[in-house]
Design brief:
Number of domains of chain B: 1
Structural class of chain A: alpha/beta
Largest sheet of chain A: 7 strands, mixed
Largest interface: A-B, 40 and 33 residues
Shape of chain B: globular
Strand content of chain B: under 5%
Helix content of chain B: over 70%
Number of helices of chain B: 10
Strand content of chain A: 25-35%
Largest sheet of chain B: none
Distance between the termini of chain A: 50 Å
Order of helices and strands of chain A: EEEHEHEHHHEHEHEEEH
Oligomer: heterodimer
Radius of gyration of chain B: 21 Å
Distance between the termini of chain B: 77 Å
Helix content of chain A: 25-40%
Number of strands of chain B: 0
Number of strands of chain A: 10
Chain lengths: 264, 258
């Protein structure tokens, strides 16, 4: 089975009719890396993740998976993919355990009830395994969606606003899970508005505005929790001088640049 | 001799078998998932069953006094009209569940053959239609003497029902899936479904009249209906992935600004 990591988007654009949602995106996500997408609502984060999940074709440019690059995800390739959408996409009439068992069975991992239960415990739903998922709070459903994504140790994990609806403990738990998956070698691409949570886990943060990547910041020494210190690219792709910055400063700076560009 | 027995099968056949088994298994798992959800609230089963009973009652009140010759003409229409409405109800409900929680898009990212999704939904739709047909046919036979042949030749009647339902559901499942991922409106399903399934329903109607009239060509009609089923299922399963993914390529729903 060919690997689906790294994920690469090259000069990728996506239009819906006359509306250009993504324009000339250049992005690469390697194994053992957590990349965060930041930006205001409607800036194209979900569209980008949908393309990376193989749910949307690109209008221009390419989206490829693995080396040598594959231009689509067949059934075997999707065994290595996990996608947590903004809506939890949970079967509300099934129990938490049944939700996970369905995916495990479809993957061909029948009989791994222990593995399913272990995942539920890992996301703090061990006690709720036999409860109907439709009775869960939004936060619990989010935990269940995350557990489902971890089935089969995927190589590429895509998460659309995964911190949504999680309480403080849930956010900390998700942070630990993401770092564990990163340590395992998974490539992780997530979108979020939660700068504090992203700052705890991400290796790189890309700020999207008007369908473009307007800022790309990485950590100084590549360690989670450290300040984001190196600005790689400013608006329009120009190389800006290295400058120590917090993620919040980077996001604010990028947003201001976008506004100025729009004014011009 | 033993060497001849032990000779390997042609590779093409092995590949085909290897490809079909996981698809059949995944289709069964997806259908079982739908049935498990249905058993939790019986929403679709009860709606379809009560609709069937209501239709039967109205048919009985409206047409019981018809002469036998007219009943022979009317009963096929009653049967397939009921199937058409129950089918639309079933397809709408099955895919509404997926739409409500956006689960179909989740399935598209899992290691599942797209065609397995088609056959899973087709199987559930057929099960509901066959269940309602199993109520309709004996009831029509009891209410209308001209339809007594449904009880006298139950095997022929059952084959006719199943083959007609397959033709209807094969087309309906294709378009219902496309609309489900496109955030389409149910009204669109009806607009598309009835014109496209009309030929299959008319064919089934003609075959039903042949059964009621004890027409010598009935089994020929049945064979032709089976051939139509094969053609429709093959074409629909072939088109399913582009219809499903093409329609899923609509913009994700906008969320309110924070």
């Amino acid at each position: 089975m060919a690997a689906i990591v790294p994920l690469r988007l090259q000069a990728t654009s996506r239009r819906f009719g006359r509306l250009a949602v993504l324009r000339g995106i250049e992005l690469s996500v390697e194994g053992g890396e957590i990349v965060a997408l930041l930006g205001a609502n409607g800036c194209g984060k979900t569209t980008l993740l949908s393309i990376a999940a193989g749910l949307l074709p690109v209008s221009d440019g390419t989206c490829t998976w693995g080396e040598p690059p594959q231009h689509g995800l067949d059934r075997d390739a999707r065994r290595q993919l996990a996608y947590v959408a903004h809506s939890t996409q949970i079967y509300g009439r099934l129990t938490a355990r049944e939700n996970l068992q369905l995916v495990a069975s479809l993957r061909g991992d029948d009989g791994e009830v222990a593995a399913v239960d272990a995942l539920l415990v890992r996301v703090g739903l061990g006690e709720a395994a036999t409860r109907i998922a439709g009775t869960f709070s939004r936060g619990m459903q989010q935990r269940l969606a995350i557990a489902r994504a971890l089935l089969g140790q995927p190589a590429l994990v895509l998460l659309d606003e995964p911190f949504t609806a999680l309480d403080h403990a849930g956010r900390a738990l998700l942070g630990r899970v993401l770092l564990d998956e990163r340590a395992r070698g998974a490539a992780i691409l997530l979108s979020s508005h939660d700068l504090e949570a992203v700052a705890e886990v991400a290796d790189r943060a890309l700020l999207l505005g008007e369908g473009r990547i307007i800022d790309d910041v990485v950590r100084a020494r590549g360690e989670p929790g450290e300040a984001f210190a190196v600005r790689i690219r400013g608006l329009g792709g120009a190389i800006a001088p290295s400058k120590s910055t917090s993620l919040r400063d980077a996001a604010s700076h990028g947003a201001a640049q976008t506004r100025r560009a729009a004014d011009v | 001799m033993s060497e001849a027995v032990a000779a390997p099968r042609p590779a093409v056949r092995r590949d085909t078998t290897a490809a079909v088994v996981p698809v059949a298994r995944q289709a069964w798992l997806l259908a079982k998932n739908d049935l498990r959800q249905e058993l939790r609230d019986l929403e679709l089963a009860l709606t379809a069953a009560f609709f069937t009973l209501t239709v039967l009652m109205m048919f009985a009140l409206a047409f019981a006094a018809l002469p036998a010759a007219d009943q022979t003409l009317a009963v096929p229409g009653m049967l397939w009209l009921a199937v058409a409405f129950i089918g639309a109800l079933t397809l709408t409900r099955i895919f509404d569940r997926e739409r409500e929680a956006d689960t179909l898009r989740a399935v598209l990212t899992w290691p599942v053959d797209r065609v397995a999704i088609y056959f899973g939904k087709l199987g559930v739709t057929l099960l509901v239609l066959a269940g309602c047909g199993a109520m309709l046919m004996p009831a029509l036979a009891l209410l209308f003497p001209a339809a007594g042949v449904f009880l006298q030749r139950p095997l022929d009647a059952a084959m006719l029902l199943v083959l007609g339902c397959v033709a209807y559901a094969a087309v309906g499942t294709l378009f219902a899936a496309g609309l489900a991922t496109a955030s389409g409106k149910n009204v669109l399903l009806s607009v598309i479904l009835y014109p496209l399934t009309s030929p299959a329903l008319i064919f089934a109607l003609v075959a039903t009249r042949a059964l009621l009239e004890d027409h010598p060509q009935f089994h020929t009609y049945l064979g032709q209906l089976a051939a139509l089923d094969v053609v429709l299922v093959v074409i629909a399963s072939w088109l399913f992935e582009p219809v499903l993914l093409g329609s899923s390529a609509t913009p994700p729903p906008r969320r309110p600004r924070r």
